[in-house]
Amino acid sequence: MAFTVEDFRDLLELLRAHPEWRRRLWELLASEELLRLPAEVEAFRQETERRFQRVEEQIAALTEAQRRTEEQIRQLVEAQRRTEERVGRLEEAVAALAEAQRRTEERVEQLVEGIRQLTERVDRLEQRAARLERRTEDHARDLGKLKKYSMESRYRERAALVFRGLLRGAKPVPYERVDQVLEEAVAAGRITEGEADDAAQADLVVEGFHRREDRKIYLVVEISDLGDTEDVRRAANRAAIFARAFQAEVWPVVGAEELTDLARNAARDLRVWWVQDGRAFPPREISEESPS
Fold this sequence. Notes:
Blueprint: H1 5-17, H2 19-29, H3 32-157, H4 159-162, E1 167-172, H5 175-188, H6 193-199, E2 204-210, E3 216-227, H7 229-246, E4 249-259, H8 261-270, E5 273-276, E6 279-281
Parallel strand pairs: 3-4, 4-5
Antiparallel strand pairs: 1-2, 2-3, 5-6
């Protein structure tokens, strides 16, 4: 019996009405590969979904990472902005410091110039002071010489009164006699030529008699406004030379308005008399210090 179109239509209606027949018919008509296809498609679908899920998870992770990266970038941008602001403030501070340094350097230069000018003025003042000091020293030296000449003249002219406390009939020995005595002493070998030259520089030589005894005494006098240790030593040394020249008793004397403390001690040690305004002080009676 032949299978007609009507039969085929009836078969289709039956298959529509009975789905289980369709499956059974499919099992009969389909090959093994086609039968496995739904399962493979399902497995493929599930694998695809899993992959899509992993991709979605990765995308989500990347999105989160992107979000975190953008947040970090935003923070970096903010930090960069703050850094630029700080750098700007630092630049302003450095510029202000540089300006202050420039002003300081200008002031230092002005101070250096002022110090240089002040130093020059001080140098000029020191030079003027030195000149004034030299002039003062010259004046003091000249005044000292004038005082010494005045005292020498007074002591020579008024020897009897000035040295009355030491000798009776005191009178200066003329220069000519002093020179003659020294020459004769050199010739006799009692003193050397150098000693004669030194002794000849004595300010004054006086002769007279002891106040209580009838014996002749000579005085070798060094005259100064303010007697110092050199005056005392010269008087002692020259008196020793004249003692050998005259072959007589010779006393060393310093005629001065005042003696330094060191000169007072030296006079006591070297047994040198001190004559002050006509008053005679024996060595032992010279105080160690001048009255204040």
